[in-house]
Design brief:
Elements: H1 12-23, H2 39-42, H3 49-52, E1 60-64, H4 71-87, E2 90-94, H5 102-114, E3 119-122, H6 131-139, E4 144-147, E5 158-161, H7 164-178, E6 183-189, H8 195-211, E7 215-222, H9 227-240, E8 246-249, H10 252-264, E9 272-276, H11 280-288, E10 293-296, H12 299-314, E11 322-324, E12 328-331, H13 338-341
Parallel strand pairs: 1-2, 1-3, 3-4, 4-5, 5-11, 6-7, 6-8, 8-9, 9-10
Antiparallel strand pairs: 10-12
Helix pairs in contact: 1-12, 4-12, 7-8, 9-10
């Protein structure tokens, strides 16, 4: 297929091996039970941290995610859980109910530190807010692995993530193709504090400005990854710009809101929608032709590589500054390609 190439500096073979292994059963990620999960629910072995940290034989890794409400984070959790079981580690995995709850996430990070894990994996909601907690981890000789979103700190030993600048640039190219290279478009982003929000916004915006002088970005709004808030923002933008040609939704919650707004205003299929990640609503919309296409990351692979990086750090190995987990562009023409289907979640 035209768009079946896997984008990633570290070459997709290893990432796809992890993902196919974790996803080949076809199981849907088990929904999280709220803002956090117990070790037995989400840990690799089901052992308690007290039994696994410090002097225990199984390494204990505390994972603090950006959220728990979207299927993306449940897919990351599945990847981490499966890899921990495979490698003989135990994990805890938790994240706030909403991706706007920075303070709640920092409380979870402090709680994780209090359990004295041998490593921490952390996806920051605010790239600047966690500095004192990261310093505590460093002072306690607990290696920190960033994942999904990096932090403005040299303390993490590596960051496991998608190259979001490049991925959003591909989304911009696809938008230009879809609208014929000219017209008004808008962006709905989940936030302007996390690295994912910043880099996806900037990657799309920079590519449009650099390559498509006849395309105007009329609005960039922030919906906290909430479909309801994102839908309201999209409706407001369309009211102010009745000739709008397209929306880029920079995460699952953002594009869900865009799709809902287009449906409610009778503009589904008339205004181009381009999204990020997957989930059942996006898959259905792409198959129905009401969403043009989306960028998919490798969420199961992100979770698995996060655990692998933490175990390498515990073993004293030197890690690269970033571990690129790659991405695909997918649309109606290649959504069933086995390589792409392996990294989509419902």
């Amino acid at each position: 297929m035209q768009y079946s190439r896997f984008y990633g500096r570290l070459a997709g073979a290893m990432a796809l091996t992890l993902v196919v292994g974790a996803c080949s059963s076809g199981a849907t990620p088990t929904p999280s039970s709220g803002a956090g999960a117990s070790p037995a629910a989400s840990g690799g072995t089901g052992a308690s941290p007290a039994a696994s940290s410090g002097t225990g034989t199984m390494p204990y890794i505390a994972i603090v995610s950006k959220g728990s409400q979207h299927q993306f984070w449940q897919a990351v959790q599945k990847g981490a859980t499966d890899e921990a079981k495979l490698k003989g580690a135990t994990i805890t995995y938790e994240g706030p109910a909403s991706e706007s709850e920075v303070d709640k996430q920092l409380t979870m990070l402090q709680t994780a530190l209090d359990k004295h894990p041998q490593a921490i994996c952390f996806a920051a909601l605010d790239s600047k807010a966690a500095g004192q907690y990261l310093q505590k981890a460093k002072d306690a000789n607990i290696p920190v692995v960033g994942f999904d979103s990096g932090v403005d700190s040299p303390i993490p030993v590596t960051t496991v993530a998608t190259d979001n600048i490049a991925a959003a640039g591909v989304a911009a190219d696809q938008m230009a193709t879809a609208i014929g290279g000219s017209g008004k478009v808008a962006i709905i982003v989940h936030d302007q504090t996390s690295q994912t929000g910043i880099t996806r916004r900037d990657g799309f915006t920079q590519q449009i400005k650099a390559k498509y002088p006849n395309i105007q970005i009329v609005a960039t709004e922030y919906g906290a990854g909430d479909p309801v808030k994102s839908a309201d923002l999209a409706k407001t933008i369309m009211t102010a710009n009745p000739d709008l040609k397209g929306f880029f939704g920079a995460n699952e919650g953002s594009i869900k809101g865009v799709l809902n707004a287009l449906k409610e205003t009778g503009k589904a299929g008339k205004v181009i929608a381009i999204g990020y990640d997957s989930g059942q609503q996006q898959l259905d919309a792409i198959n129905a032709g009401t969403e043009y296409g989306a960028i998919t990351q490798n969420p199961v692979g992100i979770g698995a590589k996060c655990v692998d990086a933490a175990l390498d750090a515990i073993a004293g190995k030197t890690l690269p500054k970033t571990i690129d987990t790659g991405f695909y562009w997918y649309d109606k023409t290649n959504i069933t390609d086995p390589k792409i289907a392996a990294v989509l979640y419902k």
